[in-house]
Write a structure and sequence with these properties.
Elements (H helix, E strand, L loop, with lengths): L4 E16 L5 E16 L3 E5 L6 H8 L7 E6 L2 E2 L5 H8 L2 E4 L3 H4 L6 H11 L5 H14 L16 H13 L5 E5 L7 H18 L2 E5 L3 H7 L2 E6 L2 E7 H4 L1
Length: about 240
C-alpha cells in the first residue's frame, strides 16, 4: 500500500520586507520562497538540498508556521495551518517539531537537561509530575544518553550529546513530523554518523516523518527516500534518491 501524504504544500510563497542602506532608507522585498508545491509522505524522509540562501530553512520554518506564509497553503490533517493563529496552532505544535543546527543555542544554559526535556511534557500535559522523571529517563535512553545526564547542564555536554538532548526534547511531545534543519552540520564527522543512525532508528521505532535539510550529499543519499533541490526560492527538482543520484 502506497504511503499517504502527511503534509501537502500548495503554491507556498514567503516574502521578507527589509530595509537597505546605511540608515535603512530603502525598502526592499526578499523573495525567499517563490510558489513551491510538493507533498511529504507519511513515514518518509524528504531531504532539501541547495546552496546557502536558496530557501531550504525558510521552507522548514514556514511549514511549521514559525514563519507566516505570504501566500499559499500548508495542509496538515485536512487543515490549512497557515490560516491558524497561535492559539489555534497550539494543538499542532505537539505534532510538528524541529531540531536546529546549533544545539547549544537552543538549550537554556540555566536549565538542567532534565528540565529542558521535561518542559514540553508538562506544558502539553503529557505526564504528571510523578511520571515525569521516568518519562525523561526513557527519552534520554531513546537517544543513547544515561539517566544521570538529567541533572547536568548544557555546558557539561559535548556537541553530539547536546544534539541528542535536542532530539529528545523534540520527541518529548510525541510528534509525527520533525524538521531537521542542518541538524548534523555543526558536528564532527564521526558524530554525524552516530546522529544519522539515531534518527533512522527513531524513525523506525516511532513512525516519524522527516524533512531533512542539509548540504552534505553523502549524508542525504544515506538518509533520504526522496530529495528536493532548491534554487533561488524555487523547487527546481524533486525525485527519488535513486533517480536523483
Amino acid at each position: 500500500m502506497a504511503a499517504q501524504p502527511l503534509m501537502r504544500i500548495e503554491n507556498l510563497v514567503k516574502h521578507f520586507h527589509v530595509r537597505l542602506g546605511a540608515f535603512g532608507e530603502r525598502a526592499a522585498t526578499v523573495h525567499a520562497l517563490d510558489d513551491i508545491s510538493f507533498e511529504i509522505l507519511e513515514g518518509e524522509t524528504l531531504s532539501l538540498v541547495g546552496e546557502s540562501g536558496c530557501g531550504k530553512s525558510t521552507t522548514g520554518f514556514t511549514l511549521l508556521n514559525l514563519h507566516r506564509a505570504t501566500e499559499g497553503k500548508v495542509i496538515y490533517q485536512g487543515r490549512n495551518i497557515v490560516e491558524l493563529d497561535e492559539k489555534a496552532m497550539r494543538p499542532y505544535r505537539r505534532q510538528l517539531q524541529i531540531v536546529f543546527q546549533d544545539p547549544y543555542s537552543t538549550l537554556n544554559p540555566r536549565m538542567t537537561i532534565g528540565e529542558a526535556v521535561g518542559e514540553p511534557i508538562l506544558f502539553h500535559k503529557l505526564a504528571t509530575k510523578a511520571e515525569l522523571k521516568d518519562r525523561i529517563a526513557t527519552l534520554l535512553a531513546d537517544v543513547g544518553l544515561p539517566p544521570r545526564f538529567a541533572s547536568r547542564y548544557p555546558h557539561e555536554l559535548s556537541g553530539g550529546q547536546r544534539q541528542r538532548v535536542a532530539i529528545a526534547r523534540a520527541l518529548a511531545c510525541q510528534p509525527k513530523f520533525i524538521v531537521c534543519d542542518e541538524a548534523i552540520s555543526a558536528l564532527d564527522v564521526s558524530v554525524q554518523a552516530q546522529i544519522i543512525n539515531l534518527l533512522l532508528d527513531l524513525q523506525q521505532k516511532y513512525g516519524l516523518t522527516y524533512l531533512f535539510i542539509a548540504h552534505d550529499l553523502a549524508v542525504v543519499r544515506h538518509i533520504s527516500d526522496r530529495v528536493g533541490v532548491m534554487y533561488l526560492g524555487r523547487l527546481a527538482e524533486l525525485a527519488t534518491r535513486e533517480e536523483l543520484f
